[in-house]
Amino acid sequence: MILDTLSIINFKNIAEGQITLSKQINCFVGDNGAGKTNILDAVHYLALARSMHTITDSQSVRHGEEGFVVDGNFKHDDGRPERVVCGYQRRAGKTLKRNGKEYERLSEHVGSFPIVVVSPSDTALISDSAEERRRYVNRFLSQIDRGYMSQLIRYNSALQERNKLLKTNPSEEMLLIYDAMLSASADAIFKRRTEIVGQLKPLVEEYYAMLSDERESVDIEYRSELQNGSLAELLLQSRQKDFVNEFTSVGVHRDDIQFSIGGFALRKFGSQGQQKSFLIALKLAEYRLLAEHVGDKPILLLDDLFDKLDMRRVAQLLRLVSGDMFGQIFITDCNKHRLQHTLSEAGVEYQLFHVNDGSATL
Ligand SMILES: Nc1ncnc2c1ncn2[C@@H]1O[C@H](COP(=O)(O)OP(=O)(O)O)[C@@H](O)[C@H]1O
Ligand SMILES: [Mg+2]
Questions:
Q1: Which CATH architecture has domain 1-114+296-362?
Q2: How far is the CA of 31 from the centre of ligand 2 (A)?
Q3: What ligand 1 atom has the least distance to the C-alpha of 36?
Q4: Half-sphere exposure (CA, 13 Å, Cβ side) for 287?
Q5: Of 74, 81, 296, 362, which shows the fewest CB atoms inside 10 Å?
């Protein structure tokens, strides 16, 4: 997938701008606060119809304006052109058009324009609670499998209903109905998460070994209560407890993914550099699986490339992602000379954009 041109109106600190992009590496350099990440976020809006940060659409509208428009001309790997326009108006909400036709549901868009983001905020995947890791897997899986998203929505609404019901001293029959609904979706979610973590595992190991010269092996493991039995059984076993607590205490809403290095928890025993290399390995593994499933090479956003990585490692990463396995790449850094030096060390071609006060120029 290649983004050929990008136009932006009133998106964050970008009043108006238009750029033509390279099929390979696009670098955005400029001071902190210049608008480099904002440009990447505009690309993210085109791919997934939302920000890569946890902010609302209205927070992405330039201060004092009514709405934003992000407009992009893409090309699939087989050469097919596509145009995506994402607009948001404070009063009318968000619209997404693909080749001039408006989507009825934004979720229909997800997965057609694959994208992978590496950013400083990825560290939340290691430091935050299991919820953050579930959210990551959910987002990843919804790009490759639309059915997954609907199972997840079904599961969450059945869970809410069951929790409500538990507060009302329900009959056995009523509970059994909800247990059955929950179980059906949970089984599908469990199966998909098991598969994807199994597929990620060897790739994360492979990329981590390429990115670091250390001997430690890394591991990623899916943890779910459903590994001890079907949810239907588990719900029966925990029924008394659920009555007392008035909420559902087992299920895939409690799943986690464990990251480890040399057999120990990455969060506690990994250095900052090791954690960062791990996260990049995870994202590159995600990239590979997305490319396989979607059939287009995803767009790769590398925000603040040098964040916690030394120059040698960055050069290693650049050599890796400039290979045939990867496609179009967007890189940001605040230090032009450091970036240029590292790019030439890695021996890769690139296009450089200077970002200044919300505008990008060649
Ligand atoms: N809705 C908005 N309207 C106007 N400016 C915004 C908005 N949201 C963020 N900004 C500005 O964008 C700038 C940050 O841009 P960013 O792309 O994160 O910078 P960097 O180049 O460091 O990546 C800040 O100056 C911030 O005030
Ligand atoms: Mg930034």
A1: 3-Layer(aba) Sandwich (3.40)
A2: 9
A3: 21
A4: 26
A5: 362
Q: What is the pLDDT of residues 317-326, one digit of tens each?
A: 999 999 999 9
> How far, in Å, is the centroid of ligand 1 from the Cα of 66?
17
**Rounded to an integer, what distance in angstroms lies between the CA atom of residue 116 and that of residue 290?**
9
Q: Taking the model in full, what pTM does it have?
A: 0.96
- Best residue among 9, 11, 13, 59 to mutate for probing ligand 1's pocket (most ligand atoms within 8 Å of CB) is 13
Angle of the 172-211 helix axis to the 146-166 helix axis, nearest 10? 140
Contact status, residue 326 vs residue 300, Cβ threshold 8 Å: yes
User: Cα–Cα–Cα angle for 117, 118, 122, nearest 5°?
Assistant: 110
With a 6 A CB cut-off, is 64 part of the ligand 1 pocket?
A: no
36 lines ligand 1 (CB under 6 A): yes
Q: CA separation (Å) from 226 to 180, 245, 250?
A: 15, 20, 9
- C-alpha–C-alpha distance, residues 107 and 151, integer Å: 13
Cα 203 to averaged position of ligand 1 atoms, centre (Å): 35
For the chain, give the number of residues: 362
Please work out whether the CB of residue 72 comes within 6 Å of at least one atom of ligand 1.
no
214-261 residue pLDDT tens: 788 999 999 999 999 999 999 999 999 999 999 999 999 999 999 999
Pick from 303, 319, 314, 307: which is nearest to 27 by CA?
Answer: 303
CB atoms within 10 A of CB 314: 23
Report whether residue 226 contacts ligand 1, using a CB cutoff of 6 Å. Answer: no
Q: CB-based contacts of 85: which residues, under 8 Å, 6+ apart?
A: 69, 70, 71, 72, 96, 97
Sketch the domain layout of the chain as residue ranges.
1-114+296-362, 123-289
State whether the beta carbon of 13 lies less than 6 angstroms from ligand 1: yes
- Distance from the CA of 20 to the center of ligand 1, in angstroms? 21
